[in-house]
Specification:
76% helix, elongated
């Protein structure tokens, strides 16, 4: 999640492609953390596959948002809290990640999604909204 905080700052102050790269990488990292937790937890290979598939899905949204519309990044960051809550906080993935991680990740994901929504405000261009 520290990488995501850096992404917010880079996106705001270091240049658009640098910020987009960090936001995309942060999304993939947030998804990849759950795969990492599954690797060290005693789970079945099917669960590993589920975690790999969510990494691919969120990674694809990150790639689409990296050079395309910011809406893809917004969608990824807005959907990841669903994975956090439904799968890892109250669902079958409960206990795979550390107890604090899903609520913390959920909260941070929503903050990043809100940032993207405010920063790009419906723009599908690579550049942010001029007023921001």
């Amino acid at each position: 999640m520290g990488l995501s905080l850096i992404a917010l700052l880079l996106s705001r102050f270091a240049g658009e492609i640098v910020g987009r790269t960090a936001l995309s990488t942060g999304l993939f990292t947030a998804a990849g953390a759950y795969f990492g937790f599954a690797v060290v937890a005693p789970v079945s290979p099917i669960w590993w596959l589920i975690e790999v598939l969510q990494c691919v899905a969120f990674g694809a949204l990150g790639l689409l948002g990296w050079r395309g519309s910011a809406k893809w990044l917004l969608l990824g960051w807005a959907l990841h809290p669903v994975w956090d809550f439904v799968i890892h906080y109250v669902g079958p993935g409960r206990g795979i990640s550390p107890e604090f991680y899903a609520p913390a990740c959920l909260s941070f994901d929503l903050i990043v999604a809100a940032y993207i929504l405010i920063r790009y405000r419906g723009s599908s261009d690579l550049i942010p909204t001029p007023e921001r």
